[in-house]
Amino acid sequence: MAPALPPTSSTVTLNINGEKHTLTVDHRTTLLDALRERLDLTGTKKGCDQGQCGACTVLLDGRRAVSCLQLAVAAEGREITTIEGVAEGDRLHPVQQAFLDLDGYQCGYCTPGQICSAVAVLEEHAAGWPSAVTGDVRPEAGPPPLTAEEIRERMSGNLCRCGAYVSIVEAVARAAADGEKHTEAAA
Amino acid sequence: MKEFGYQRVSDVAGAVAVLGADPTARFLGGGTNLVDLMKTGVERPGRLVDVRQLPLDQIEPTSDGGLRIGATVTNSDLAAHPEVRRRYPALAQAVLAGASGQLRNMATVGGNLLQRTRCGYFTDVTKACNKRAPGSGCPAVEGEHHNHAILGASEHCVAVHPSDMGVALAAFDAVVTYETADGPGELPLGWFYLPVGDTPHQETALPPGALITGVTLPPAPVAARSRYRKVRERASYAFAIGSVAAALDVRDGVVHDVRLALGAVASRPWRARAAERVLTGAPADGGTFAAAADAELTAARPLPRNGYKVTLMRNLVVAVLTELAEEATR
Amino acid sequence: MTTATRRTFTEAVGTPHPRVEGRDKVTGAARYAGDIPFAGLAHGWLVLSTVARGRISSLETAPVLAMPGVLAVLHHGNAPRVETGYTGMLSVPDPTAAVFQHDRVPHLGWPVALVVATTPEQAREAAEALVVHYDVEPHDIAFSGDRPDAYPVDGHMPGVTEKGDLAAQLAASAVTLDEEYTTPEMHHSMMEPHAATARWDGGRLELIDSNQGTHWVQSELAQMFSLDPGSVRVRSEHVGGGFGSKGVRAHQVAAVMAATVLQRPVRVVMTRRQMFSLTGYRSPTAQRVRLGADADGRLRALEHRSLNLTSTFHEYVEPSAGVARVMYDADAHRTANEVVRLDVPTPTWMRAPGEAPGSFALECALDELAEKCGIDPIELRARNEPERGPVSGLPFAGRNLLACFREGARRFGWADRDPRPGLRRDGRWLLGTGTAAASFPSGALPSTAAVTAEADGTFTVRVNAADIGTGARTALTLVAADALETAPDRVRVRLGDSDLGPASIAGGSMGTRSWSWAVTAAAAELRERLALNTGIPPEGITVRSDTTEALGALAQKERHSFGAQFAEVAVDVTTGEVRVRRMLGIFAAGRIVNPLTARSQLVGGMIWGISMALHEEAVRDRASGGHYGADLAGYHVATHADVGRVEADWVEDHDPEDPVGIKGVGEIGVVGAAAAVANAVWHATGVRHRALPIRPDRVLAAAAGGRHV
């Protein structure tokens, strides 16, 4: 017997930047399109729609992900943070401030993705995650220092066609250093 | 992309049952490959069964000293896991060499094993492709193939498997476990991927409707000294044009144990058993390493514009084994 | 004189200033063309041909129209007719943009239909479902330097220039070189896809678009649709990169057609794959360079011939040989820009058109000549500095190339360089350094501006500039602040709106120079008006300017920016990997308005050079005539990990006779950069790579002593 045709849309509640949004989505709708076309959260950008550029990077449960390959219906129950939710009110996140001060962008289209990615890179590094350029990945080797080379590798999923890479890496390094100072001060 | 149904499942039996009832259904893991293929029209499922929340997200040591990795463990968690990094560093390196931080956070181990080739003919539904549309032909043989297979291909398909993780898993004799309506089963990675032959569309030996539940790595002390090297056409965020996963145990200057697998050379991660046979028991020197590489690559059948891969793989094998041998003497 | 009171402000020009829209960009508040919501918005999805040549025999529209949400299917059988028999601001229109006017298909990826639906998901599925039947004809896409059907073309410069007896001078030369250099098809690949929303609002056509000049797009659309220019408004506030590709394209025309037919707002956004055939690209080039020199390196003969492809229906010339008309003189001097017509889309301007590929060939050839002569490459260039334009005979309005080389050599550590190749090693890497010269024209286009002194003491500058990531909004704020002798935070710049009037496009490195000229002129007159001290009425005092006349009065000179590029590379000849460890570019580019953003642009250009040297290559499939791997995984642009330490700086470049003093910095950075990398790869390995990109397989083949592939 042929299976009954399943429904092709669902009502979901998405938790975005601490706010709950209930909407009915076509199952084909990606999280990226739901943000942009349904919720007017257009800070998340569509660069390739294929997971090949990183412009649509958001945080899912605190981890960076490309929202173009994340179906909206499958994002229910997850904590979604977009570029609109990175700052604390009027106070920019240190990564945002560093991008602004050091000109870590040009056209600005890849910028929200770069910033979300950078925020997560700092977390991943703080958690001791190695990268493809970490010389010794064994846990005994300890966490790698966040050198320019480490930042470049970790940020490589975010293309910037304007070629703002140099100042982006500087901005991420500065935000990381600010974070360390902050941690030291708190300790 | 056509319309489709969607449902979440919370237990393995339920997942398998849904797929059994609907042959148009597909399992959805991280979606990093499937959703992309749905956008390009390569995949047109009638229903997605979201398996991300199945309780298969653990990495646990096995009693014999191996590791069991759940199918929904993300690539990121796999690469960050201390026991993976300690016991199988090449596996962590391979995973880290793949895709981007964002994609590794989404992608799962089960999905990674099942990802499809990035051959540009396969991903373009306006072109012929025996893997996507059996019998339509393989334009790559006469057309663009500079990143296509040199080993194990056929006139029907010369595409390569894109996984980095799979190369390390192949080197370490991973066993894929799965569940079907008739019960569980397992397949060593060497049997998991089918030869290309004249059926390039049949990629794995998984029974229809089977759900991958995990991967088991048998204990391999040699793997503690292992390495993954990947060459690609930009420094990061690109698929391999050649890669090597190798583990080497040298005692008194002689190869005591070795594991070697090659990536981006065949329709599947390529375990280099011919090379391993040359290496085992032989002096751990450049001559042996080169002879081993040659032994594996005598089977290479390059196309007009991918012959460089033979040179590349030979050099890579020698380089990685040399590095491992040098580290062993330190 | 009132100098004492005048100098109470700090000069803004020359002081680093963060982008004025920076906060919007880092918080996601900046809205790009596809980000602006409209009630009742419908979504258009383009359908492209799957054959490279032929005719559309039929389209099966009925089943598609029956699909959920589908509102219309536009195609050559039912689309509004458009006018194409006009000459636009920059050229005659490219028929690829004038969609759905006939049944002919001249290339794969030609727009054959637009499917409009209520949601993007519906539009996409319906577009994919549309069956189009073709009468297919054989196609020809084979590009090579020896095409017999190549012919010279005049673009914005003559196709051919020649003087002297080339054969005789080559015969008389102690050292000669005759090599072919090739560059592949390259794509702009800006991060923001082309997107436009069209709607009719009270009898006026409004277009929210992503482009490099709203006045340009407005005037073209008005002509195409036979509308009064005043009844068309085009806005483009934030633009996610352009690089030459964002002019009039299929998406805008299709969106206007659909909005007209449906009488509701319609947005058309291109997919990344569609961009590969609809938005132009840099043609591949095959360039032959012949040089003849005395033993001391002085050129007697120089020939630079460049061939590029174009479509069968529109001529575009990539004027790569033009760079030789500026850089080096010789007793016999011949340059030629030629094209061949193939069944492909029309190429277009792409960041440093002509100069980017041309400088790769010419500056590599100079490096080879230096090696043959046993002369340092910088010294070779110094010995061949022309007094006047080699072809034009005109004087240079400043030529500070050697100052760039001196400063660059000092900072890069060039003096310690051993010129012999293949000697330096760091582990598995062979190391090498290379250099190349750069030049780019410093032009201007007529522009208008309006500057208003507001009653509250602030100023509003209205100039129809486009900020495509160049920092134009900020630069013009600083220029206006100085011209008005006020602080930048008292100046508000409005741009990107065709209602602001005619102005230069953001292209050809002319934008900032052109717009600044108009802004400065209006501001100067406004200051005079304010000096009369009659008080400011509530509506403010506005002064308008138009630079058309001033531009026409500019003396005929060779006006260019110059630069010296340096690169250090590491090459693993066993794997073919090449890494650029560091680059330094020193430029003479006039007065630098905003050092912070100018540096970004120059560095960005240099990164384009790295990308061009090592990665970029769009591959065409001979059998189908279309691309293989037309996406950002198949078409590699440099990512973070490809870019080591890249620095840009500048030397004093002041022309007291220039009315503006500002030159562009958007393109000079890419010029010569790929050559510097390729010359460094030679220095590392001893192998010349004359075909870009320098892929691993090419490095491996070279190491094996094989033929270059």
Task: Provide structural commentary.
The complex is a heterotrimer of chains A (187), B (330) and C (709). Chain A is globular. In chain A, helix 2 (94-102) crosses helix 5 and helix 3 packs across helix 5 (165-186). Chain A has two domains: 9-85, Beta-grasp domain (Ubiquitin-like (UB roll)), CATH 3.10.20.30; 94-186, [2Fe-2S]-binding domain (DNA polymerase, domain 1), CATH 1.10.150. The model of chain A has no long low-confidence stretch (mean pLDDT 95). Chain A contains five helices and five strands. Chain A has helices at 31-38, 94-102, 111-126, 148-154, 165-186, and strands spanning 9-16, 19-26, 57-60, 63-66, 79-81. In chain B, strand 11 (254-263) and strand 12 (270-271) form a beta hairpin. The mean pLDDT of chain B is 97. Helices cover 31% and strands 21% of the residues of chain B. Chain B has twelve helices and twelve strands. In chain B, the strands form three sheets. Chain B has a five-stranded antiparallel beta sheet with strand order 4-5-8-6-7. Chain C is 26% helix and 25% strand. Chain C starts with a helix and ends in a 6-residue tail after the last helix. Chain C folds into three domains: 3-30 and 445-547, Aldehyde Oxidoreductase, domain 4, CATH 3.30.365.10; 39-138 and 189-278, 2-Layer Sandwich (Aldehyde Oxidoreductase, domain 4), CATH 3.30.365; 395-442 and 554-709, 2-Layer Sandwich (Aldehyde Oxidoreductase, domain 4). In chain C, helix 13 packs parallel to helix 14 and helix 16 packs across helix 17 (673-685). Chain C has a seven-stranded mixed beta sheet with strand order 3-5-1-13-10-11-12, sandwiched between helices. In chain C, strands 7, 8, 9, 14, 15 and 16 form a six-stranded mixed beta sheet that branches. A five-stranded mixed beta sheet of chain C has the order 17-18-23-24-27, with helices on both faces. The radius of gyration of chain C is 26 Å and the shape is globular. Chains in contact: A-B, A-C, B-C. At the A-C interface, helix 1, helix 2, helix 3, helix 4 and helix 5 of A face helix 2, helix 4, helix 16 and strand 27 of C.
Name the features.
heterotrimer; B: 330 residues; Uridine Diphospho-n-acetylenolpyruvylglucosamine Reductase, domain 2; Enolase-like, domain 1; five-stranded antiparallel beta sheet; four-stranded antiparallel beta sheet; 12 strands; 31% helix; globular; C: 709 residues; alpha+beta; Aldehyde Oxidoreductase, domain 4; seven-stranded mixed beta sheet; 26% helix
